[in-house]
Amino acid sequence: MVQMVAWITSLVFMLLIAAVFLVVAIKSKEKREYEPIVKKWYKARTFYGAILVILIIGVSLYTLRLIPFNQPVYSEGEEPTIVDVEAFQFGWNITETEFKVGEPVEFHVTSQDVNHGFGIYDEDMEIIAQTQAMPDYTNKVYITFDEPGTYEILCLEYCGLAHHQMVAELVVK
Amino acid sequence: MSEMMVRLKSRNNLIVTQMVVTGLTVIVGMIFGIIMLLVQGGMIEAMPATFYQFLTIHGTFMIGAAALAATAIMWYFLSHYVELSKKILKINLVLFIIAAVMVTVGTFSFEYAGAWTFLYPLPALSASAWGTIGALFYLIGMLVMGVGFLLLFIDSGRAIIKKYGSLGKGLGWDVIIGKKAEKDAPPPAVVASTMVTIVNTTALLSGSTVLIMNIINVINPAFTFNPLLAKNLTYAFGHIFANATIYMGVIVVYELLARYTKRPWNSSRVFLVFWTMSTFFTLLVYPHHLLMDSVMPRWMLIMGQVLSYANGLPVLVVTAYGALMIVYKSGIKWDMASGLAYLSMLGWTIGVIPAIVDSAIVVNHVMHNTKWVPGHFHMYMGLGVIAMTFSFMYFLAKNDNGLKETMVDKTAFFMYMFGLIGVSGSFLTSGAISTPRRFATHLPEWMGPAQFGAVAGILVVIAITIFVIHFIRYISVRNKGNIGSDYYDKKLA
Amino acid sequence: MKQTKLGILLYVILIIPPITTYMESIMLVHMLIQFPLLILAGWLIGEWVLERWPYHFLKWDANGIAGIILVIFITTYWMFPRAMDESLTIWHIELFKFISLPLVGILLRNSWRKLTIIGRSFVFLNYLSMFGLMGWFYIDSPVQICNNYLEIEQQMLGWGFVVITGIMIVYVLQKCFISGTKSNVNQI
Amino acid sequence: MIKNWRNVVAIILAIVLGSLLIYFGTDGFHAFTEESARTYQLHQEKPLFPRVMLEDNKERVYPFSEFEDKYVLITFFYTACTDVCPVLEMNFAEVYDQIPEKYIGEDIVFLSISFDTKHDKPAVLENYRKSFGSDGETWRMARIPNQTELDNLLKKFGVIVIPEGNGHFQHNSAFYLVNRKGYLEKVMDYEKVDEAAQTVVSVLEKEAGE
């Protein structure tokens, strides 16, 4: 979901920029005085810069509303399931691997040896959440599975020669 | 031959040597890159150990080559304005070659495969995949390289301070506050060099600190360090050092486009303000590599996101915009040098977009360490820094010798452009479908983009080889004693 | 020769047993006051040494590099927690301290003026990052690193290093960003 | 180049001398702290457990030679300790649990020695042992009433104890394995329980195999 939005947004802006570069390259064949160009386009730049600044502030405010490492507010009487995850070369120790749909889960992720990445993939092999697993520290991921199925954990930080084989499964019923 | 000419020639010789080393390193690095894509695409087979060794060498060589080429560009143009030490340039090149050999020996002879980011404590804890000696060869090699670059930037800082009074003045702060007129502002080449001097000195200091931490830990694993500190230092080093290459490379764009269009590209006040912003942002945004470490202080992570956004402004509003403006209706004569310079600005600008997108914490949550990340920097570095490098090569060849460019070169230009767009695009697509980065094997559904990327990569290597051949032709002509007509240098003399 | 006399006086004061014992009883004073004072004593005495054997230094250490390398190695050695511990318990390590650190001062005096600005800046920046690391290391260390000192002292020492690093950073910044007249710019 | 050969020689000499200093100063890069140097040295020297009289939690008094022909795994602690010692003894208990039962008491005895002779009387020790599940037989807690004997032992085994003056001590901690002949065999990191247990078991197994 987020991936698609990101991909399309990037593509649109990249194509836009490429188009501008192309137009300017085509227009470069003409030859005009520089002074008037500077004057005109400096003015345009002020406008364009202002729009960018507003865009940046807007997008920042929008995307920072819900940052994933803020602990969600649980409703009265609802206790999250706390799952301890320990990564090691090359595997996972996960205290609990079966969950129910709608059950709030907190993964407390750490590592025995080197840095690893704890990435949760859904049934369609799309990442839905991740955090770093690092020695001496515990990172947290908050998640509530919406759909039943088998989820996979892959390592998302290069950790040695069997990095790509560090797989674990979670089952959501 | 006048004394001046001799001096210039020996100076150019060093630069030319440095560019040859870069060109060859880039080709070798790219070949390893293509092999990795072929393996991921399931088209050839390799042991994971081999794959990760290639990964390590590819990253190290590419970053090293980009830095070496970029410093050559910076040095060449900066030396028109300030007095730089040729001895230091030579020492840096020698140390770089020693480092490259050590890194190669460590990787291939002793099977070190801890990636170029040497994230503590991986060099020491390899699950017995590699030993102490391999790790030490690699780490000390990197340290040697760091020493060379540090000396180089100390020298550029010294020279700028000597000429302009202080690094602040090198960035034109006295012009910004209105103490000095805009027309007396330091030229763009000096401003960029000052910025890079500041940020890279910081980067190299953090880099050497974390390297020494790793070295001690490898020698005696009982001696441990704080892994979060190590991570911060590593990314402060890696992020700044990689970014600085483009800020050095862009000097060639400033110098070339101004010359080709016969339009001035001066440091205006806005230009100076934005370069100062770039200086601070480049130093401060590295936490966007740590967005997935929730143990980091929250304000640092939010700063990482917000400043990453803001860091897009200088390039989008000043540098790229300036390049477009200077080319627009200028009647410019396009050749390889000017074409590549223009292309590099495109690469830089569009490469910034996926980076900005990924620096949002919510997006990073699902895209961090997927192939989206290499997608962004292959555009930014591959189509940006590398294009600047070869733009500079063609400039030297033409300016020094008047060497003619052929249709082959032109074809190579387009192969290179579409090839790299293909490579980066395939990476970005992989990232969008959640393909993890740095995986020796791919699931079947991830293989398509990798195969496409490999084919596009082959196009790029062919193009780069043609570029390098052109450059080597230039050297052979040059060595016949036909000293060229560097009008710029002559004017200086 | 005024400096030499001062240096010898300083050295004599430093080796008076009660003073030595007192200084060594506090970790911070041991590393951040006694060590530098010993180096300072060497530096002052260096005036006479350099005058007495000028040609030897010229011949063997014309560019100052050999001297500075020794300085770096010796000071690095003395930054190991172990060296500090052992100087308290093993007499020949203590003796080595009172010889090697003044030697550092002498070598430094000779090398520093011969080094180029680039060399000096390089050495300076390396010490800057090294001190920063030492600061973090002593503060953050979860265990007692020195057997002869308490953990709290260890942390005080760490903060001492942090303060020194801070001062060094301020020094670099003012040198690089606040320009004086042209003449003193030349000597970063 | 040739004209400053002396410089080049001096530089090489400086590097060699400096490296030697660092090398020997750290026992060949093994020990940057005195603690690690101490462990390293103990492994090299394997000192003999000196003659001492112990007084244990059951008020029994006997020399250390009582344990002759058995391995003894030892910790040094004091009961008033609030930071390291509880962890140390907890971990000690975990090691105890990981040793196969057939060895316990027969081939190996666990012994926690208090260096707070004044305060840790047998009754105090008896009380303390219960909180860690020590049975008082195969894992005993004891003090050494004679201060000179205690100091001698601490010195031999490189245990450093600095009284803070308020009833507390700063001290270093480890597991010490003494062999059947009374020589120190191994010093192990008390934080790495599994590793220590494995080491002890492998020592015991190796003997059984012979």
Walk me through what this model shows.
The complex is a heterotetramer of chains A (173), B (493), C (188) and D (210). Helix content of chain A is 32%, strand content 31%. Chain A has 173 residues and is an alpha+beta fold. In chain A, strands 3-9-8-5-6 form a five-stranded mixed β-sheet, with no helix packed on it. A four-stranded mixed β-sheet of chain A has the order 2-1-4-7, with no helix packed on it. In chain A, strand 1 (81-88) and strand 2 form a beta hairpin. Helix content of chain B is 76%, strand content 0%. Chain B is globular and about 60 Å long. In chain B, 66% of the residues are buried. Residues 484-493 of chain B have low confidence and may be disordered. Chain C is an all-alpha fold and 188 residues long. Chain C has one domain. Chain C has helices at 2-15, 17-25, 27-52, 54-60, 65-79, 81-89, 91-114, 117-140, 151-177, 182-185. The longest helix of chain C is centred in the C-terminal third of the chain and has 27 residues, at 151-177. Chain C is globular and about 50 Å long. Chain D folds into two domains: 2-42, no CATH class; 49-209, Glutaredoxin, CATH 3.40.30.10. Chain D has a seven-stranded mixed β-sheet with strand order 2-1-5-4-3-8-9. Chain D starts with a helix and ends with a helix. In chain D, 35% of the residues are buried. At the A-B interface, helix 1, helix 2, strand 5, strand 6 and strand 7 of A face helix 2, helix 8, helix 10, helix 11 and helix 12 of B.
Keywords:
B: 493 residues, mainly alpha, Cytochrome C Oxidase, Chain A, 0% strand, globular, D: 210 residues, alpha+beta, 7-stranded mixed sheet, respiratory chain (chain B), cytochrome-c oxidase activity (chain B), Cyt_c_oxase-like_su1_dom (chain B), Cytochrome C oxidase subunit I (chain B)
Can I get a quick summary?
The complex is a heterotetramer of chains A (173), B (493), C (188) and D (210). With 493 residues, chain B is an all-alpha fold.
End-to-end distance of chain A, in Å?
Answer: 22 Å
Q: Give the DSSP E fraction of chain A (strand runs of 2 or more residues).
A: 25-35%
Q: Which structural class fits the helix and strand makeup of chain A?
A: alpha+beta
Count of domains of chain B: 1
Low-pLDDT segments of chain A: none
Shape of chain B: globular
- What sort of overall outline of chain A do the alpha carbons produce when their principal axes are compared? elongated
Strand runs of chain B, count: 0
CATH class descriptor of the largest domain in chain A: Mainly Beta
Summarize model confidence as the mean pLDDT of chain A.
Answer: 90
Quaternary organisation: heterotetramer
Radius of gyration of chain A: 24 Å
CATH domain class name of chain B: Mainly Alpha
| Structural class assignment of chain B | mainly alpha
Protein name (chain C): DUF1404 domain-containing protein
Transmembrane segments (chain C): 31-50, 62-80, 92-110, 122-139, 159-178
Keywords (chain C): Membrane, Transmembrane, Transmembrane helix
GO molecular function, one term (chain A): copper ion binding
